[in-house]
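User: Need the bound-state model for zinc ion:
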Amino acid sequence: MKESDVKNVPGGGAEVTGGHESLPAPAAVDEDKDGANFPESTAEPAEISDSVLDGKNMWALNCIFCPSKIMPAKVASYHVEERALPKMKQKKALSEGLEVEPLSRWFMVSDVMMFDNIGVSNAVGDIKYLTCADCEMGPVGWTDLSNKKCYIALARVRET
Ligand SMILES: [Zn+2]
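Assistant: Bound-state model below.
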């Protein structure tokens, strides 16, 4: 006798539970932060609080390359002016092809006599470059021959 197979097909597919309707609403999308708070171009402050006090050099200024003291504290006036200065070299090489860099922060004195030690290069047009009197590295600044004012670059000296 043949067993007639009753195919017992399991009925039905899996029941799909749950609709999609009840899903929570997605969290609010963040506002686009484009263009918020972009800082203004970084203008240099009128004074640098850790170098300038009452408009004068707070510290004595020294050569970066040797112990030579260029000027005592509180004798020079802080001065902002964009000016291209040749990159640092020995004084003897200063008159050769000059690669310059723009500098804008200076300490100004009205006369070269106000320095403790300073070297002066040959005239280049109406200015002379100032160098360390001992190791002759420079320029650390420049002097205007028309009015004798001398400018020392903050970036080229060591404050002590
Ligand atoms: Zn020096």
